[in-house]
C-alpha cells in the first residue's frame, strides 16, 4: 500500500477519510490482474479515440454546397461521400462509449463489493482505483473536445435527413449495413447530449446501483465521495501535489474530482450539493477556482450544466454563487 498514504483521518475531517493516491505509479496486484487486464484492453484505445475526435474536421462546406444546389447531383454525391466516412468514425466513438460503460461497471463491482468498505478497497486495489480515475479523465477530455465541434451534430443530422429522404440512389448506401436505423437512433441520442460520455457513465453508475439491489447505496456513493476527497487533498496540498513528476497529473486530478462529483450527484438521492453530502463541495470548487482559468473553465461548466441537483432548493446559495 506504499502508493496510497493516509493524510487525514475521519476525526480530522467530518467528510471522511482522505487519501493520497499515486495515480502515476500504482501497479496491479495478482488479485486485481484479471479485471485490470479487461479494463486495460479498453483504456489502451482511449488515446486513439481522442486523437480521432481532435482531428475531426467535418463536412460543413460540402453540406452547404449540396443544400444550396439541390439539383446538382455532383455536389450531392460529394457531400454524401464526405459524410459517410465521418459517420463511420462517429459510430466508432459511440461504440467505445459502450465498452467504457462495461469497464466502469466492472470496476464498480470490485471497488464496492463486501466485505470491504470502499475506503479499504481503494487501499487494497490501487491499480483499479487508478483505472477508475483514468476512465473519468478520458470522459472529461472527450466531452471537452466534443463541445467544441458543432460539425458532429451537423454532419450526423445531414446524414439522417439524406437517408430519410432517400433522394440519393447508388451512392455508398452500403453504409446502412454499418449504421442501420436503430444504431442511428442511438447515436443521435448520444451526440445530442452536451457531454455524451459523462452522460453514459452517469447512466452506467445509476444502472449499477439499480441492478445491485442487495448492495447498499452507500458502498457506491462512499467510493465516489472518497475519490473526490483524494483529488481535493492532492490539489490543495503542495506537499502531496509536488510528488507528481508531471504537471499534467494535476489536471488529471481536477478532471477526476469533477467526474466523481457528477456521478455522485446523479446516484445519491440528495445529490452532491446538499449539506448532508459527504463531498466537501465548497472546498472542491475553491480548489478549482484557485487553478488557472484556462484549465478549469470546462470543468466548472461541467459542474454547472451536467449535475442533477445544483438548482435544488436544498443547495446552499453560496455554492451556486461560487459556480456563477
UniProtKB/TrEMBL annotation:
The keyword ATP-binding is assigned to this record: no
GO biological process: regulation of actin filament polymerization; regulation of T cell differentiation; thymus development
Similarity comment: Belongs to the CYRI family.
GO CC annotation terms, alphabetical: membrane
Membrane topology: Lipid-anchor
Stored InterPro entries: CYRI, CYRIA/CYRIB_Rac1-bd
GO molecular function annotation: small GTPase binding
Organism this protein belongs to: Seriola lalandi dorsalis
Protein name: Family with sequence similarity 49 member A
Compartment(s): Membrane
Keywords associated with the record: Lipoprotein, Membrane
Main localisation: membrane
Any Pfam family the entry gives: CYRIA-B_Rac1-bd
Residues covered by the CYRIA/CYRIB Rac1 binding domain: 18-320
Amino acid at each position: 500500500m506504499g502508493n496510497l498514504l493516509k493524510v487525514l483521518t475521519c476525526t480530522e475531517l467530518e467528510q471522511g477519510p482522505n487519501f493520497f493516491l499515486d495515480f502515476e505509479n500504482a501497479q496491479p496486484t495478482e488479485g486485481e490482474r484479471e479485471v485490470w487486464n479487461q479494463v486495460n484492453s479498453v483504456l489502451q484505445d482511449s488515446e486513439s479515440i481522442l486523437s480521432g475526435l481532435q482531428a475531426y474536421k467535418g463536412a460543413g462546406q460540402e453540406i452547404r454546397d449540396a443544400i444550396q444546389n439541390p439539383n446538382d447531383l455532383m455536389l450531392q454525391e460529394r457531400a454524401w461521400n464526405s459524410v459517410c466516412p465521418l459517420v463511420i468514425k462517429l459510430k466508432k466513438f459511440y461504440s467505445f462509449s459502450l465498452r467504457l460503460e462495461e469497464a466502469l461497471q466492472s470496476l464498480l463491482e470490485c471497488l464496492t463489493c463486501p466485505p470491504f468498505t470502499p475506503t479499504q478497497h481503494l487501499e487494497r486495489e490501487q491499480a483499479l482505483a487508478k483505472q477508475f480515475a483514468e476512465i473519468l479523465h478520458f470522459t472529461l477530455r472527450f466531452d471537452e473536445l466534443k463541445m467544441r465541434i458543432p460539425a458532429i451534430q451537423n454532419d450526423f443530422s445531414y446524414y439522417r435527413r439524406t437517408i430519410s429522404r432517400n433522394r440519393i440512389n447508388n451512392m455508398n448506401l452500403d453504409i446502412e449495413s454499418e449504421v442501420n436505423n436503430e444504431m442511428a437512433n442511438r447515436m443521435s441520442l448520444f451526440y445530442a447530449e452536451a457531454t455524451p460520455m459523462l452522460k453514459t457513465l452517469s447512466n452506467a453508475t445509476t444502472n449499477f446501483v439499480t441492478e445491485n439491489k442487495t448492495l447498499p447505496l452507500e458502498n457506491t456513493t462512499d467510493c465516489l465521495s472518497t475519490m473526490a476527497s483524494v483529488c481535493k487533498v492532492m490539489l490543495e496540498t503542495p506537499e502531496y501535489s509536488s510528488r507528481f513528476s508531471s504537471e499534467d497529473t494535476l489536471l488529471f486530478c481536477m478532471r477526476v474530482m469533477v467526474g466523481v462529483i457528477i456521478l455522485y450527484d446523479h446516484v445519491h438521492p440528495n445529490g452532491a450539493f446538499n449539506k448532508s453530502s459527504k463531498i466537501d463541495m465548497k472546498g472542491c470548487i475553491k480548489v478549482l477556482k484557485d487553478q488557472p482559468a484556462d484549465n478549469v473553465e470546462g470543468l466548472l461548466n461541467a459542474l454547472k450544466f451536467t449535475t442533477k441537483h445544483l438548482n435544488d432548493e436544498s443547495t446552499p446559495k453560496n455554492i451556486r454563487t461560487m459556480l456563477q
